[in-house]
Specification:
Layout lengths: L17 H15 L6 H12 L4 H10 L4 H10 L11 E6 L2 H5 L2 H12 L12 E6 L11 E3 L2 E3 L7 H18 L1
Parallel strand pairs: 1-2
Antiparallel strand pairs: 1-3, 3-4
Helix pairs in contact: 1-2, 1-3, 3-4
The structure holds FE2/S2 (inorganic) cluster.
Amino acid sequence: MTDDVGKKGCPGCEEASEEELLARLDEIIEKYKAKPGALIPVLQMAQGIFGYLPEAALKHVALGLNKSYSEVAGVVSFYSFFSTVPRGKNIIRVCLGTACYVRGGLDVLEAIKAKLGIDVGETTEDRMWSLEVARCFGACGLAPAVSINDEVHRRVRPARINQMLAQYMEREEVAENVG
Ligand code: FES
């Protein structure tokens, strides 16, 4: 069972250069710099723009918000939702909250690790998948749960992992053919 919320895929989007992305970030910094508590929202938006937080983006944020680079880098390393390495097109999160853990979340995690050939916090070489763990998606009644991008898959069984991941690989192929 899945929640189809905001499916990803934008075959018409063109890749922007790093300069263009930094210009977008500068625009955001300009809007936020006078606001108290701007650092985290600006970092979240920077991650939305780049897909992760490259050093150049962190330097722009530090300079623009008048903070030291080490303060900005410290905040980024403190929060697990920030990433300083490029992530995959699909982010797969395995819930290890109590209900999911008790109902086999770890077995699901092991099956996904084996299928993708990566560990938690890693990205596949083809940049298709990044694997993370999470604490609770609010789907405890139908545990164990796994989220892929914006979709929550419930009652996931290790034996159904191939089928679950195949849907996303097929979507990718359709998007490429359309583009
Ligand atoms: S514990 Fe996994 S969804 Fe709540």
